[in-house]
Specification:
This protein is of the alpha+beta class. The protein is built from six helices and nine strands; from the N terminus they run βαββαββαββααβαβ. It has a domain of 59 residues: Alpha-Beta Plaits (2-Layer Sandwich), CATH 3.30.70. Helix content is 24%, strand content 20%. The strands form four sheets. It has a three-stranded mixed sheet with strand order 8-1-9. It has a two-stranded antiparallel ribbon with strand order 2-3. It comes from Metabacillus litoralis. InterPro entries: 4Fe4S_Fe-S-bd, 4Fe4S_Fe_S_CS, ET_IronSulfur_Cluster-Binding.
Length: 180
């Protein structure tokens, strides 16, 4: 996989096309594995897409007593293996982003796996392929670096300072995220 998932939260228009596309992905059983959240529902209509951040050291995998959550050679964190998952839901409580969800009917955990069957062949995940505002992109590493540099420059112009010690530090380089 030579491409990178890049999220630019401020570009999200809340259309939920990413969720609809996720439901249409081949092995998702008509369930979305990504979400669109409100920044502050009471004060703003601003939304942002929430996908699995594919953490470097994923808490969901660390707390799984059955070793049901596998990580590919490329670093993609997959949903729990059905034959190993014991339904303890430790993964749902351990994730700092609240990504893994538990299906009580199926008795298994599911989460975004970046449409691994597509992304391992450098084909954009379903959510990135339909995002009309480019809030979710599947791009080359060099393009991501350019976007980050441009965003850093804009932050300086706008007087924004980077924050230290937040949860985004756990996100690997192949998952480019821009956030204030």
């Amino acid at each position: 996989m030579n491409k990178i998932m890049y999220l630019e939260f401020e570009r999200c228009i809340g259309c939920r096309a990413c969720q609809a596309a996720c439901r249409e992905c081949g092995d998702h059983d008509a369930k979305e594995r990504n979400y669109v959240e409100y920044v502050d529902f009471t004060e703003s209509r601003q939304t942002y897409p929430m996908l699995c951040m594919q953490c470097k050291d994923p808490a969901c995998a660390r707390v799984c007593p059955a070793n049901a959550i596998q990580i590919t050679d490329e670093g993609v964190v997959l949903s729990a293996m059905e034959e190993k998952c014991i339904g303890c839901r430790n993964c749902t409580f351990g994730c700092p982003f609240g990504i893994p969800k538990f299906d009580f009917e199926e008795n298994k955990m599911y989460k975004c796996d970046m449409c691994y069957d597509r992304s391992k062949h450098d084909i954009a995940p379903m959510c990135a392929s339909v995002c009309p505002s480019d809030a979710i992109r599947f791009i080359d590493f060099d393009e991501m670096q350019q976007l980050r540099r441009k965003r850093s420059q804009m932050n300086l112009v706008e007087g924004k300072k980077p924050q230290e010690g937040n949860k985004w530090d756990y996100v690997p380089e192949f998952f480019g995220v821009y956030t204030d």
